[in-house]
Automatic annotation (TrEMBL):
An example molecular function term from Gene Ontology annotations: translation elongation factor activity
Classification via Pfam families: GreA_GreB
UniProt keywords, alphabetically: Elongation factor, Protein biosynthesis
Species whose genome carries this gene: Pseudomonas ekonensis
Transcription elongation factor GreA/GreB C-terminal domain location: 123-159
Keyword Coiled coil: no
Domain of life: Bacteria
InterPro entries: TF_GreA/GreB_CS (IPR018151), Tscrpt_elong_fac_GreA/B_C (IPR001437), Tscrpt_elong_fac_GreA/B_fam (IPR023459)
Name of the featured protein: GreA/GreB family elongation factor
């Protein structure tokens, strides 16, 4: 798996998500400001509801813009086995049941998923319990995290 390819796919997905969110925000704004949505009485809340939606969509656009900017400014470095896992690492993990997954440790955009030749790669950030636990670990290390009162253990199988 190629780290630069994964990074580019993440940027492409963020750009696509931003475009969709901007169009949704514009549509919500137009609905909120349309003359047909002006309240005729105190029980007519369509305009108010549309304005809440528009505000939420605008916040989502800003979140995606921030994620995109942070990921665009990410400098990809080769894995250094003296420093361990850092932001920008592409890594393989295996859980206790032997299930494998690929993760990309990014500065933001956690939860985003991209597909690399049929292999899903999930973006995590250092703010997540798993991301925090992975920082500084090495290939072959085990990571244990506590999620909702349940301990989960993973082995780092590969780091790029």
């Amino acid at each position: 798996m190629n780290k630069q390819t994964v990074h580019q796919l993440i940027l492409d997905k963020l750009r696509s998500d931003l475009d969709i969110a901007e169009r949704a925000a514009q549509t919500a704004y137009e609905a909120a400001t349309h003359e047909e949505n002006i309240a005729e009485n105190k029980y007519d809340t369509l305009g108010l509801e549309a304005s809440y939606l528009a505000a939420g969509q605008a916040r989502r656009v800003e979140e995606i813009r921030q994620s995109l900017a942070l990921c665009q400014n990410l400098i990809l470095r080769a894995y250094d086995d003296t420093r361990g896992i850092e932001v920008g690492a592409l890594l393989g993990l295996e859980d206790e049941r032997g299930r494998e997954q690929w993760l990309f440790l990014a500065p933001d955009a956690a939860g985003l998923k991209v597909d690399v030749v049929g292999q899903p790669v999930t973006v995590i950030s250092p703010r997540s319990p798993l991301g925090k636990g992975l920082l500084g670990k090495f290939e072959g290390d085990e990571v244990e995290i506590l999620v909702a009162g349940t301990r989960q253990q993973f082995a780092v199988t590969e780091v790029l």
